[in-house]
Write a structure and sequence with these properties.
single chain; alpha+beta; Beta Polymerase, domain 2; two-stranded antiparallel ribbon; elongated
Amino acid sequence: MTPTEKTQPDTRDDALRAAEKVLGDIAQRHRRLTAAFAEAGHELYLVGGPVRDALLGRVSADLDFTTSATPEIIQPILEQYGDVVWTAGIEFGTVSCEKDHEQLEITTFRADAYDRVSRNPVVRFGESLEDDLVRRDFRVNAIAARMFDDGHVEIHDPLGGLGDLVAGVIDTPGAPEDSFNDDPLRMLRAARFVSQLGFTIADRVKDAMSAMAEQLDRITVERVQAEFTKLMLGTTPWEGVDILVDTGLCERFLPEIPALKLAPDEHLQHKDVYAHSLTVLRQACDLEDNGPDLILRLGALLHDIGKPDTRAAKPGGGVTFHQHEVVGAKLVRHRLKALKYPKDVINAVNNLVFLHMRFYGYSDQAWTDSAVRRYVNDAGDLLDRLNKIVRADCTTRNKKKSARLSRAYDNLEQRIAELAEQEDLAKVRPDLDGGDIMRILGIAPGPTVGKAWSFLKELRLERGPLGVEEAEKELLAWWEENKPEA
C-alpha cells in the first residue's frame, strides 16, 4: 500500500464482505478455543482493532477477545490450548497466550471506572458484551464478532461503529469529554487513527480534544511517545500531525512543530514553514522503498525546527534562517531525548537535520571529489535517507528552480556512484591503522596515535586512496612537524 492509499469501504455490505474471509479464517483457526469456552458455558468474541481491520479488508497481527468467563476460567483453558501462556494482566481480567506464533489476548467483559487523576482504571467486570463495548475508546473499535465452534462468526454492533467505519469517522461511544477524562491518551489515539486509517474526526470529538489538550499531561511520556510513533508510521502521518497541531495536543509534547507556524518560509512559496514541513514529510513518505521509515519521517518533519530561533530580516525585505540546521539538530536531540526515544533514533535524526543543508552547496557550485567523499563519509549509513530528505525538501512551485535542483540531485548521486566504483566510500579509512602508526613512528598507545590517524583520515578524504607507501611517507612528514621535543 502506498502512503496515500485508503481502504475505506463504500457501504456496510462492502465492509461485511471484506470481513467475511478474514474473520472466517480466524474462527476456523481457533475452533478448539471457541469450543472450550462453549463447553465451560461462556461466549467468546473477537473485538476491537482486529474486527475493525477485518471490516477494512486488513489482517491484524494480534487478536483481542472478550468473554463472559472470568480469569479463573480463562487461564486453564489457555494453558490447555496455547503454546505459551502469561498472566501479567490478570488483575485487569486479561490472560494471554501464543498459539502457532499468533498472540491472543482474552479479557473478561469489563465495565471499568477511572479515577480521572491517572489513567488507571478501577477494574470492574461487566455483565454483558454491551457493558464492555461502551467503555471502549471509539465506536469503530466497539464492534465485536462472536466466534462459534463450527467456524462461523456473527457481528455485534450495538453502538453503530460500522456506520462510523463506512463514513470514515472517529467518534466516541458516549460524550467525548467523559471518554477523554477517563483516559486522555485517547486524544492522541484519535489523531493516530487519522494517520493510520485515513478517517476524519467528528466535530464534537475534535472540539473536546482542543478543550482538554492539557489533560495529556497526565499521561507518561513513554505512552505519549509510543502513540506518536504509531502516528508517524501511519499511512498519512502529515494529516495526523496536523490534527495534533490544530487541537493544541502537539504543544504539550512537541512544541517545536506548532512554533513553525510563526516562521515564514524564505522562498515565500508556503504560508509558513509548518506547511512546508508537512509537505516535505509527505514527499519523503512517497520516496520510501521498504515500508514506513520512522527515522526518515522524523527527519523530514523536524528538519526545519531551528528556523524560528534563527529567523532574521534581510535588507530590502524577506527573511533568512542562517545556521538553522545547527540549531535544529540541537533542538532535535533535546526533544527526542525528552520523549525517551532510543539513542540510535536520536542520533540518526539529529544527524539528518544537521546535514540536510549540505547539498545546497553542491547545487550552487560543482564539488571536488574530496567534497563528495566528505558528504558520503559524514552521512555514513544515513546517506540514502539524507538523499531522500534533500529531494523531499524541494517544494518550490518555480518549475525552473525545481528542475535545476533535480538535475543537481541526479548529478550528485551519479558522482557518488562513480567514486564508489573506484573506492569504498561507505568505509573511508586511512591506508594505515593504529598498529601501523605505532610501528612506523615507534610510539606507544596514546593520544598521539589518534591525532596521527585523524591526519591520515583527512588526507584520505582529500586525495582518495594513497596506498601504504605514500601514506607512510605522508605520516613521517607529519611526524617531523608534530613530534614532541626531545
